[in-house]
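QA checklist item 7 of 12: single-chain prediction sanity check.
[x] sequence parsed
[x] length recorded as 181
[x] structure emitted
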Amino acid sequence: MSDNFHYEETIKSEKIYEGKIIKVKVDTVELPNRSYAKREIVIHGRGVAIVAINDENKLYLVKQFRKPLNKVIYEIPAGIVEPNESIQEAAIREAQEEIGQKPNKLELVTEAYASPGFTDEIISIFLATELEENKLELDDDEYVEVELVSIQDALDMIDSFEITDAKSIIGILYAARKLGI
C-alpha cells in the first residue's frame, strides 16, 4: 500500500489561537475516500530533553507541578529550543537552568514526536555526561526540585509508575541500554 493512500489533502486551514508557547489551528482535510474531516493541530516549538548522568552513574530528575495533570511529576530536564539556538545549545542551557550542571559531553540518543495525533512537537533527547557545576537562573515561572537517583532506581520508578512522562521514560531507557544497565 502506498503512502498516498493515507495522505490527507489540506483544503482549508484556520488559525484559532496564538500564544507564547503554542499555536492552534483547525485544518479541513480531504480523506483518501474523498470525504472531509477536521483536524485540530497544536503547533509547538522544538523541544529538548536531557538524561544527565554524573560520575557516580546517577541521573538528575526534576520534580515539578504540571497544571494539565494537576499534580507533581518526575521528569528529566527539558525545555524549548529558543529562536536561533541549536538543539545542542538548548540542551546545555536547559541542564544549567534546571539542574545547575553544564554537560561537557552531549550525545543525541533519539528524537520522538510528543503526541503526533494533535501536535507537531518533536523532542530531541540527549545523554549528557562529564558534568560540571554551572547554574543558570530558572525561568520566572519555573519551580523545580532536583533529585539525584541511580539509573536502576529510575528504572524501578518507571516500573512502579512514579515516572510516567513519555520523554523521560524514553530517555532513561535509552541511557540504561547505552550504559549496559
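[x] summary fact logged: The chain has a mean pLDDT of 92.
[ ] second reviewer sign-off
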